[in-house]
Amino acid sequence: MTADPSAPMAAIDPLRLRVFSLNCWGIRYLSKHCSQRYAMVAELLSREGYDIVLLQEVWSEKDYLFLKNKLACSHPHSHYFKSGVIGSGLATFSKHRINDAFLYCYSLNGYPYMVHQGDWFGGKAVGMVILEIGRLKAHVYLTHLHAEYSRERDTYLPHRVVQAWELQHFIRHTSSGADVVVLGGDLNMHPQDLGTRLLMASTGLRDCYTETDVFDGCEDGITLIADNCFINKKDLVPFEKGIRIDYILIKGSSRVELQCESMSTTQGSVPDQPHPYSDHEALSVALRLGPSGPQAGGEDGGSGPDCAAGRVAELVDLVTEARTEVKVGLHCAERRRYTAARTGMMGVALLLLEVVMAAVPWLGGPQPFPSASFYLLGALGLASLLVTSMLYLFYTTELKALQGAEDHMRLAVGSLQERLRGVAMKRPPLEAEE
Amino acid sequence: MTADPSAPMAAIDPLRLRVFSLNCWGIRYLSKHCSQRYAMVAELLSREGYDIVLLQEVWSEKDYLFLKNKLACSHPHSHYFKSGVIGSGLATFSKHRINDAFLYCYSLNGYPYMVHQGDWFGGKAVGMVILEIGRLKAHVYLTHLHAEYSRERDTYLPHRVVQAWELQHFIRHTSSGADVVVLGGDLNMHPQDLGTRLLMASTGLRDCYTETDVFDGCEDGITLIADNCFINKKDLVPFEKGIRIDYILIKGSSRVELQCESMSTTQGSVPDQPHPYSDHEALSVALRLGPSGPQAGGEDGGSGPDCAAGRVAELVDLVTEARTEVKVGLHCAERRRYTAARTGMMGVALLLLEVVMAAVPWLGGPQPFPSASFYLLGALGLASLLVTSMLYLFYTTELKALQGAEDHMRLAVGSLQERLRGVAMKRPPLEAEE
User: Fold this and answer.
1) Could you write out the DSSP letters of every residue in A397-429?
2) What is the C-alpha separation between A269 and A262, in angstroms, rounded?
3) Taking the mean position of all CA atoms in its chain, how far away is CA B50?
4) pLDDT profile of chain B (434 residues), mean per 10
5) Closest chain A C-alpha to B77 CA, distance in angstroms
6) Interface mutation target, options A103, A175, A382, chain B, most CBs of B under 10 Å
7) Nearest-CA distance A401 → chain B (Å)
8) What whole-number distance in Å separates Cα of residue B181 and Cα of residue B169?
9) Annotated active-site positions of A, please?
């Protein structure tokens, strides 16, 4: 809002920006050494003085306020995103003024009855803050997607794919006025997973880990590592050393070129400290901002119709793959809703049986059942009817959200194919083509 | 995506765009003459051939598919937004290609136990479609906010204010790359209501009704009128003739100047037809698009620091007013949650009483109560515990959403005040100031 878009490109001095991201694992009374770890994080942040700090799983507002208090001097600007029952757990601290904030809650986020996993209660979302960095406008995104729990039987894959789909949509549509785009967070997806590829291909965001030449951290950039004492090694199988699921992704604009100069991650234990900062490793990057070269572009960026066609064709494949995954989710959700409806019908049948049983003594017959069984059966019928009604409603919203995502994906594929035809028409005719 | 942003402004030929908006009141089996009215709407739309059609309360997908089928020739492009349990009810038809779509569901939308009102089940949202109109990119928004029900005791006011707040946020953040912005729908707010003023002041959208010189419709542009046979006149009190709650709002860009040439609304009955199209009146506007003049701007648009300062000061007042409304909502939600918790405690007390009653015969005492009362009391305790637990969870999410909105508003006020200071510093010093 305050950045002057008419400022000449050359007026942007090379600028450095340091970004930090950490999943804090901050479940009060349940996560180990929670308050000590927050104190360690606060000490690290105020010492290092990163420009932008992106924290996930700050589940308690008290912990956010503790950090806000501790970082009042080093990071005077902050925002805490509230959603769901517990909150989104997303908190951001900044050296630079936060001009605006916006939250988008994902339409799918697991199941409320999986209380022990807690994802549904967290109200997973993507938060955006708009920072004023000198004369530049940075759109900084912060998110945490649904956890995987089991790689072999990943029942949440359709939900996570829809979250990645909504995330890329949100970033694409809200970042068009930005000079700099940064996304940080725990995506709960491996680098080669469908959601990661879809996110990066459609937004044009680049992975700091693969981009930088200067990296100091664990092998393969893993951020959930076997050497972290809070990690149960069995949970990592078949990835013995660990997995990379936390990211910092970046993108420049037609005005600003953005490069990742260096990246580092923690490696489990912290020198002179009794515990690691969290069960996840912390990521930090140093970014270099400079005036954009003449070839830099927006989303399409590249050069030549062949290059553009290749990118669009890749996107068509990715969205089609995502659509297939969503269709699998739709099939499962339909089956679950059908089961809920059938169990509800059993509840109705039990209640009808109760009515018949109650009618027998009134019509002069003997009491066919002991009264305890009569009332227990009634309670069972009523309870099953109540629970299945609510499940039916919930699965209907799941179905609607999945159908909505599938419709959007179909529309996107059609639109991309139209673009592909447009690109093909721009291409000069090949010589001697059979 | 496909519009070429480098096209010179002068290359935009003056272009006409006709937009139609209607709340269809399409509750199957409940709304009167539903299928006949859809047939009438289909006939009108294919005859008139509006460029963009924005429909609300198309609750059944079957009705959307009926319209899609009927309008296949006149409006080959369409999108239906799915959300919530029933759906958002939002459908759009277009003569121009729809390149992309995006849905934002409001975080607050009434209460699930108000089943007869049904707002919660509808999953109210704002849908956006990106249209390719020649070389221009039009962002078209379509929404339907929570109904008012009672003007005197409007318990949903905080929810509607938060919806208007989120709506303006969504439009501001997703429209920066657009040449043309159009919002149509049933806002369920009068022109002078806080939400309407907030929406228009913060987005820069202009009301077609107040802007056009050529208007053909009901007095004061009312869209819910006493002369419509589906309207219960008692519901309109104290506005005997009717109210204006449906809108088409527009905004150009630095490239395109957008003007409303004419506007018309239906006036209850339809010539040669047995029924009106709906309980709401239909709106249609003719817009004129031309190349932007040298003074046209984006959001700030105006001229001179005084003008800009005036607008920012107005926004500060509006956001502060909205914050007060949200605080009232917060207070009520806290009270409701407290009541739910207290009733839940009564359920727990009942269950404890049951345990004591069950223990008496086991300990050798007499059976203190007839067994029917015993089981009924148990069922009552359990049911109240279940219901209040769910209500407690629901009110917690309501609180979180209200707190989130209030935090955003506080941030926005701070940021606006900072802008105001910036504008004040740009103003030339006044002469002879004391």
Assistant:
1) HHHHHHHHHHHHHHHHHHHHHHHHHHHHHHSPP
2) 21
3) 23
4) 43 78 94 94 96 96 97 96 92 96 94 85 92 94 92 89 97 95 97 96 96 95 94 88 96 95 95 94 96 59 71 95 96 96 92 84 72 78 88 94 96 92 68 42
5) 10
6) A103
7) 6
8) 14
9) 280
